[in-house]
Design brief:
The protein has 456 residues and is of the alpha/beta class. It has two domains: 2-149, Transcription Elongation Factor S-II, Chain A, CATH 1.20.930.60; 154-451, 3-Layer(aba) Sandwich (Rossmann fold), CATH 3.40.50.10880. It has helices spanning 26-52, 61-85, 100-111, 123-139, 151-159, 163-177, 183-199, 213-219, 224-231, 239-247, 263-277, 300-317, 320-335, 355-358, 360-366, 376-384, 395-399, 428-435, and strands at 234-237, 252-257, 281-288, 338-342, 371-375, 410-415, 446-451. It has a seven-stranded mixed sheet with strand order 1-7-6-5-2-3-4. α11 links the parallel β2 (252-257) and β3. This is Sugar phosphate phosphatase. InterPro entries: ARMT-1-like_metal-bd_sf, ARMT1, ARMT1-like_metal-bd. Residues 30-431 form the Damage-control phosphatase ARMT1-like metal-binding domain. Its EC number is 3.1.3.-.
Length: 456
């Protein structure tokens, strides 16, 4: 991997990366407040794990070694908090995974241009580095290599707050799949599932650290009436263009670059089920993260755990519809109609502009697709390179290298949880500022931005 290093793509004239040093931005509040809270939760989770396994008083040499490793990780995470809060320089990674060369070379190239500290480096880079660093702390151990610090206390706990919404959405999917629908009704159903997919992105655990189960269900709008109310919150809405593109696909391939586990993943699965049922897709490829990433991003483990947990819940309450739905999904995976794929590029420091070169094998594969669906705020930031774009910047300009003529049509489904926003009409940002000063970051506003294949 180190031999594949290439410098970060240059910033277009008149733009610069968002940084934690920019006060009155979400980047600043993230570095100052959110990231220390996330790290502190990691310390709390591992401390609980340490005591739950009675490793505080180990009874064997292996237990003693495991306890010592946990204490070392806790100390290192606490050190990260200290360095972050004091704007210290980021340190090179020291493990031996294949992506280390890329990370360290990127850090070195950024350091050559100015202070390589938590507040001064590009916000996107330092956030990604943080999760890669947390991963390093675990893989350098003997006993904690496979431990997901975000799974039990955050991802799995949030699952309980989503089951009611999952039950309702499964019933809706059953109802529409067992009816004979005309073309207009089919389009309406597809529109609903696209919007379910969009608003499922509201439940982001890196932002919602202490949300109650009742509140989580309220956020997961799963009724047609609820979606109609939310549609006015979609500030860029290319749904019609997206539906027209999907209508032109028959027995094709659709790729979903996933974001959060939990309910958002479930809404992705619902959409994928409908695309197969409707004859749009004969192959749906789900792209997961290689490592624990931004607290709630979907890993391969999360994907399979979710299926297991839903089915366990369905059996416990006697919900045959939900149980049979999971069996159908397992069958789609076994038959190869659905494919779960993990590529290291998704957890590298590059913007998606650089997929054609820095992720050449991945790019060659996704170019076989008829539609790319990028889910969530982080993927949006990576697509548009997380720069201080003017909101009236065209989507094509902001997508940069992703507008290569080989790139399939793509859509970004994103609820706004960070500063970047492009493709707005003149004056729209100012209108939004007056209506809701936090529209960029509070997750209450959405974007469905579609880009057709570049014509040559």
């Amino acid at each position: 991997m180190s031999s594949n290093y290439e410098p970060l793509a240059p910033y277009p004239p008149g733009t610069s990366p968002l940084r934690g040093a920019m006060k009155d931005t979400f980047a600043y509040s993230t570095v100052k407040e959110r990231l220390p809270v996330i790290l502190t939760k990691c310390v709390d989770t591992l401390s609980r794990e340490l005591h739950a396994r009675t490793l505080a008083a180990p009874s064997s040499p292996a237990d003693a070694e495991k306890a010592a490793e946990a204490k070392h990780i806790i100390a290192e995470i606490s050190k990260l908090v200290y360095e972050l809060q004091r704007d210290r320089p980021l340190q090179p990674l020291t493990d031996t995974e294949e992506d280390v060369g890329v990370w360290n070379a990127t850090l070195a190239s950024l350091a050559a241009k100015g202070p390589a500290t938590w507040y001064q480096l590009p916000w996107l880079f330092i956030e990604c580095y943080l999760y890669r660093k947390i991963h390093e702390l675990f893989i350098l151990t003997v006993h904690w290599k496979e431990y997901d610090i975000f799974a039990t206390q955050q991802k799995e706990t949030s699952f309980s707050g989503s089951v009611k919404s999952m039950e309702e959405l499964a019933k809706h999917l059953r109802d529409v799949q067992t009816r004979t629908l005309n073309d207009d009704e089919q389009k309406t159903v597809l529109r609903e599932f696209v919007h379910f997919c969009l608003w499922g992105n509201q439940t982001d655990l890196s932002l919602l650290q202490d949300v109650a189960h009742a509140d989580m269900h309220k956020m997961q709008q799963t009724s047609a009436a609820g979606l109609k109310q939310l549609e006015e919150k979609v500030i860029v809405n290319d749904t019609q263009a997206l539906l027209q593109e999907i209508e032109g696909i028959t027995a094709g391939r659709v790729d979903i670059i996933m974001d959060n586990a939990g309910f958002e993943l479930y809404s992705d699965l619902i959409l994928a089920d409908w695309l197969v049922h409707a004859g749009v897709a004969k192959l749906v490829v789900f792209h997961a993260k290689r490592i624990g990433w931004f607290v709630s991003d979907t890993t391969s483990r999360d994907f399979h755990w979710t299926l297991d947990a839903i089915q366990k819940h369905a059996k416990a309450i006697g919900d045959d519809n939900l149980d049979s739905r999971i069996e159908r999904w397992r069958g789609l995976l076994a038959a190869g109609t659905w494919r779960l794929q993990v590529d290291p590029f998704w957890t590298l420091p590059y913007p998606f502009w650089q997929i054609p070169t820095a992720g050449a094998e991945l790019y060659a594969d996704i170019c076989k697709s008829q539609l790319l669906i990028f889910k969530g705020d982080l993927n949006y930031r990576k697509c548009v390179y997380d720069l201080d774009w003017k909101t009236t910047t065209s989507v094509e300009d902001a997508l940069g290298g992703l507008c290569d003529a080989r790139t399939p049509p793509l859509v970004m489904l994103r609820t706004c949880k960070s500063d970047p926003a492009v493709g707005l009409r003149a004056g729209q940002a100012e209108e939004l500022d007056r209506a809701d000063p936090k529209w960029r970051v509070n997750g209450k506003w959405g974007m469905i931005q579609f880009r057709p294949r570049t014509q040559t």
